[in-house]
Amino acid sequence: MGFMNDSDWHFLEGLLAEPCRNKLQLLANVRLNRFIADAAALCRPEKVRVCDDSATDREFIRLRALDTGEEQALVTPGHTVHFDGFAHGGRHDQARDKENTRFLLNEGEDLGPGFNTLPRPAGLVEIRERLAGSMAGKEMLMRFYCLGPNDSSFSLPCVQLTDSPYAAHCGDLLFRPGFDTFRKLAGGENFFRMLHSAGRLENGVSADVDGRRIYVDLAEELGYCVNTQYAGNSVGLKKPALRLAISRADREGWLAEHMFLMGVHGPAGRVTYFTGAYPSACGKTSTAMLPGETILGDDLVYIRVLDGVARAVNVEQGILGIIEGVNREDDAELFRVLHRPGEVIFSNVLVSGGRPYWIGMGEELPVEGVNYAGPWYQGMRDSADREIAPSFRGNARYAIALDPLSNLDPRADDPAGVPVGGIIYGGRDSDTAVPVQESFDWSHGIITMGAALESETTAATLGAQGVRKCDPMAILDFLSIPLGRYLQNNLRFGGKPHRPPRIFATNYWLKDAEGRFLNHKLDKAVWLKWMELRVHGEVSALEGPTGRVPRYEDLERLFRQVLGKSYAPEAYREQFQIRITRNLAKIERILAFYEKVPDLPREFGEILAEQGKRLAEWQSRKGDVLNPSDLL
Ligand code: SPV
Ligand code: MN
Fold it and tell me: 290 and 185, same structural domain?
């Protein structure tokens, strides 16, 4: 066949049906063939199926996921449910596994403190041992994707091998098809590779989660994943490929970010594009899905400077969103798409009468059904005597493609990307930052808003509640280059376009002394419109010590226009008072977090020190709290 002639290839050839051989022949890619041949020889599948972008192959994957029991059909056509492993009182498989996600590094390579790494030779031996024979009796599926729009300078081709039709099905919903992209590569070697096995299954669920490993080989741009199905681990295109892309972007001078991408609709039909980084469960998807605006993506973007303009694309074409709290009133369009006939994979929800239910859906939940723990009834407890929630708390999800959304931005697939007007950083902060503010300039934003992004833990995460964790640019879990270097890249990036995007920080989570939220969930719609006007210099702002804050009269007008609500001066005062002492305490926490981080940019300390100085000056005049009217 004009491929290679080694024994691995012969082994693979025996597993390929004729049409699959033809597909590989069409791609004529030696590096690709070596990868599959090696993976097949290692994982020992019964068959190998090469899938292209055709509807037939997509349908095949959908049906296979039902056949293998990884998904079950629900009553609404196109709806399925998938459960990830759940050990009573023990280790479950319903979230990304940080502990067992490791970078394989060559001798002499070092990512600095805070990274989970292994020497490459030892890591490869271990992961290959775990993968050996892992596909026995199963079919290895080969899927081709394109990260970023097709036929674009942003495109990154990626191939995924998996024995999990569920992982392949998720990939098909979330990522753009890439068989054609591989054909156009014409044998080129520039692509990411992912190898996944769900391992041994029990009732369609990965059974050996203690042997779960997600290893990222940066030198080879290759991700390995075994003994897990949870999509944030197993869909290599998502978080494993983000790690590879960050490293690639570092070498090539662009940015790969954990951000949404959306169009904010300004006056006279103007659309201004924003990216936004928020840690998990902090309102990232709901921001991108706000009524009246348009979504391009909710999780991953690549940003490049093209012809002097910072431009961004959505890496994906779908959403893997948290379902908890998605309700008809606050998330009308999403709610509609999650109920209409059409492809949706629900995961770790409650199923009753063939329909999915989840916490916070705004409807009464059935008192019994089937969920991630098996047959379930209200009040059921696990072996550690903890109540089993109806849907998995905090991380039950849905996977959908973006196209059925009526608020999909028409430029979502533009190969040239969209110009970035603003970048937003937002965390869960009950008592420090104002709801929205703008940085003084690019560097001030990158350091005091991006690098200093903090979020409070919630009941959804293990451990104590309300503990603040610093999560720079909401990307800490995925960083594959030293943090100091990543910040340096971000700072430098601002100097590349003619005009860098403006940088903003939002905080949707402010509470009063009684612990009540100071803002409604939809108030963020107003903050977005204000930011849009700021990008075009159409509203002025007040110069505070931590950034530029909105004027009352602008917000009052926007609350009326956008939400048809009045906005009381007292509400403004309470929300936008600058909590000086708390902001000073935050600087101390940030400095402590970064204390051991090597090679921080020179500006880092300077910018935080200046901010501290401004706050201290106001403190000596006003005490703990500064009213926005003091800035007039
Ligand atoms: C996140 O947790 O940031 C997600 C879901 O987007 S996962 O795919 O698990 O990363
Ligand atoms: Mn994410």
Answer: no
